[in-house]
Specification:
Elements: E1 2-3, H1 6-14, E2 22-28, E3 34-40, E4 45-49, H2 60-66, E5 71-75, H3 96-109, E6 116-121, H4 123-134, E7 139-145, H5 162-176, H6 178-188, H7 192-199, H8 210-222, H9 225-234, E8 251-256, H10 264-273, E9 278-282, H11 289-292, H12 294-308
Helix pairs in contact: 2-12, 3-4, 5-9, 6-8
Length: 314
């Protein structure tokens, strides 16, 4: 375990935090991948699982809010952020099950020895559910924000042609290889990316800070597109819908009224299938609600943890 580096300290300062109480580190997976993690604050543990194509920065408002009362762990999937960048995606396991096992390894490396509240965003919802299925003793409660329980390509954009389109993008990424990365990078880094995202209602320009979206697009531009699209396709191979009736732990489901990627009915279905589940709907929010409406989201998660998830520290 090592002290936080200057870049991470600067990120903390940007949301009113400080380097004190921050530790970072890496751990090695059985197949040789190096996973990067960061743990902030003291208290009962909360573990965050990213969406596909996203790094830990998307949790900055969440971490800033909970760090005074909880120890919040953020980490990067293989091929993302500061974790190992994969050179051969066909030879690397990018399944949701593998990500769930990676999460358990990261928790060990970060010194989390008691059950944690697992908070998933988008793809992270499927990772969180799979962690509960594969490592139930690790999980004190689950928060599913803006995601589904499996077969995500079937419901993407609530459109029947999504699976075929995304499968085609995966094939194109492997057909083009590196040139696809070179083609997309200037588009993702272009000033028009903000205009396209807001006009297409992928984010709400009245709630979203431009800097938060641009940071996401900047990270996405650095990813190997073969890794990104392989990760997307892997969501279709995962199905945890059948586990919901016997989940056996507190569950909070957070939906966004204008989520184009995951329709709200997916969240309503998850809550309906899970005994004792709670559902929160964010009005006017999109798939980027973590950075659009952090005050409302964070307040609801904090209340859920306090009322439903009894946790020891460490």
């Amino acid at each position: 375990m090592r002290a936080a580096d200057p870049a991470e300290s600067a990120a903390d300062s940007a949301v009113g935090g400080a380097a004190e109480g921050v530790t970072t580190g890496t751990c090695r997976t059985p197949d040789g991948q190096l996973l990067h993690w960061r743990r902030v604050g003291e208290g009962p543990p909360v573990v965050c699982c990213n969406g596909v194509g996203v790094s830990t920065f998307f949790w900055k408002y969440f971490v800033a809010d909970l760090r005074e009362s909880h120890s919040v762990l953020v980490w990067d999937y293989r091929g993302h952020g500061r974790s190992s960048r994969i050179t051969d995606p066909k030879a690397t396991d990018l399944s949701v099950a593998r990500h769930a096992d990676d999460c358990a390894l990261v928790m060990d490396a970060a010194g989390i020895s008691v059950p944690a509240v697992i908070v998933g965003h988008s793809m992270g919802c499927q990772v969180a559910l799979e962690l509960r299925r594969r490592h139930p003793a690790r999980v004190a409660g689950v928060v599913l924000a803006l995601g589904t329980a499996g077969k995500a390509l079937d419901t993407f954009f609530d459109w029947g042609g999504s699976k075929a389109l995304l499968t085609g993008m995966h094939r194109l990424a492997f057909a083009l290889g590196a040139p696809m990365n070179l083609l997309l990078r200037p588009l993702l880094e272009s000033p028009i990316a903000w205009t396209v995202a807001t006009k297409a209602q992928l984010v709400d320009p009245y709630y979203t800070r431009r800097e938060d979206l641009l940071r996401y697009l900047g990270h996405l531009s650095t990813l190997d597109q073969r890794v990104f699209w392989s990760s997307v396709l892997a969501l279709q191979d995962h199905d945890a819908w059948g586990t919901l009736p016997t989940l056996g732990c507190p569950l909070l489901v957070i939906a966004a009224e204008n989520d184009k990627f995951t329709p709200m009915w997916c969240s309503e279905k998850i809550a309906a299938l899970t005994p004792g589940a709670e559902l929160m709907v964010l009005a006017d929010a999109t798939h980027a609600a973590l950075v659009e409406q952090p005050e409302s989201l964070n307040l609801r998660v904090r209340r859920f943890i306090t009322e439903r998830c009894s946790q020891p520290a460490r």
